[in-house]
Structure formats: C-alpha cells, structure tokens
Amino acid sequence: HNEKIDVVNTLLAYLSDNSSIVRTFVMQAFADIAKTDEELRLSLRDHISELAATGTPAMKARGRKLLAEFKG
C-alpha cells in the first residue's frame, strides 16, 4: 500500500505541469489506482472530479468518462 501512496504523491506533483496531456494522464492513472484500492478511491475520485471541473475541454470530457466508471 505504501508504494501506491508513493505513486499517488508523485502523480500529484505532475498536476502542476503545464501540459494538459500530462494532467490527463494523471487523471487516468488516478482512476486506474482507484479501481484496485478502496482506501484511496474517494480521495482519487475527488481529484479527478476537481480536474474535470477546472481542466481543458478535453480534460473535462475525459474526467466525465472516468467519473462515470466510478458510478457504473
């Protein structure tokens, strides 16, 4: 579990990257981790939700798709 937390912390650092492609990749990685880690799921879903609300149009679309997977 500590390794996943290290990965999440590294990914969080990438959220300050200027590239929306990098930030979109982080959203996808958060979703992938959340699928396998119940303890991190809510926190990661919240990060995805915030990125989907504030990102580029492409990030918003990707975020909606990823968030729909949480409901499905």
Q: What do you see in this structure?
A:
By secondary structure, this protein is mainly alpha-helical. The protein has one domain (2-71). Helices cover 86% and strands 0% of the residues. It has four helices and no strands. It has helices at residues 2-14, 20-36, 38-54, 57-71. The radius of gyration is 11 Å and the shape is flat. The mean pLDDT is 95.
Question: How is this structure best summarized?
Answer:
This protein has one domain (2-71). The chain is 86% helix and 0% strand.
The helix/strand order is HHHH
Number of strand segments: 0
When the domains are counted, the total is 1
Low-confidence stretches: none
Q: Please tell me how large the radius of gyration is.
A: 11 Å
Shape: flat
Tell me roughly what share of residues is in helical segments: over 70%
> What is the count of helical runs?
4
List the helices and strands and how they pair.
Elements: H1 2-14, H2 20-36, H3 38-54, H4 57-71
Helix pairs in contact: 1-2, 2-3, 2-4, 3-4
Structure keywords:
single chain; 72 residues; mainly alpha; 86% helix
